[in-house]
């Protein structure tokens, strides 16, 4: 492998800085990691030994890969880990996993507001139709 160019090195350094800012500096409002990274870059900027440059560049790429992978891992854990979800979300995902869909829960506040406004939601309309069909008005008892 050829010696990494200064553009490649600077690009890798910028990517590492971006990851450090996302994961450490912004959440904690502590620039310690960012400052330490800048100092390490400035200390090694004048290195001229090709073998040392290759090693430093490889180490920087490894650090970047680790930081990116650990951030993505945290995001996936937060998204899919059932231990971090509330119970309603966990039940909904379990139902979807086996091909079911949970029914829409009745909300008395929303129903009262719809009733007061005179507008009927599609759910209320469908429920009313089912009730009317079950208890037909023409004297026949439905459903028995």
TrEMBL record:
Entry GO terms, CC: mitochondrial matrix
* Family annotation (Pfam families): Complex1_LYR_2
Note the coiled coil stretches, chain numbering: none
Offer one example of a GO biological process linked to this entry: mitochondrial proton-transporting ATP synthase complex assembly
- InterPro entries reported in the protein's UniProt record: Fmc1 (IPR039196)
The protein's name: Complex 1 LYR protein
Q: Which organism is it from?
A: Jimgerdemannia flammicorona
């Amino acid at each position: 492998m050829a010696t990494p160019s200064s553009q490649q090195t600077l690009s890798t350094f910028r990517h590492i800085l971006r990851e450090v800012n996302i994961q450490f500096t912004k959440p904690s409002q502590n620039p310690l990691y960012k400052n330490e990274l800048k100092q390490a870059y400035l200390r090694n900027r004048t290195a001229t030994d090709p073998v040392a440059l290759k090693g430093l560049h490889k180490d920087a790429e490894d650090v970047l890969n680790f930081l990116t992978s650990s951030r993505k891992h945290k995001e996936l854990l937060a998204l899919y880990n059932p231990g971090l979800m509330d119970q309603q979300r966990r039940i909904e995902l379990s139902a979807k996993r086996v091909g079911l869909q949970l029914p829409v829960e009745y909300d008395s506040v929303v129903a009262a507001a719809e009733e007061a406004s005179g507008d009927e939601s599609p759910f209320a309309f469908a429920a009313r139709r089912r009730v009317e069909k079950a208890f037909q008005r023409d004297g026949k008892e439905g459903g028995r």
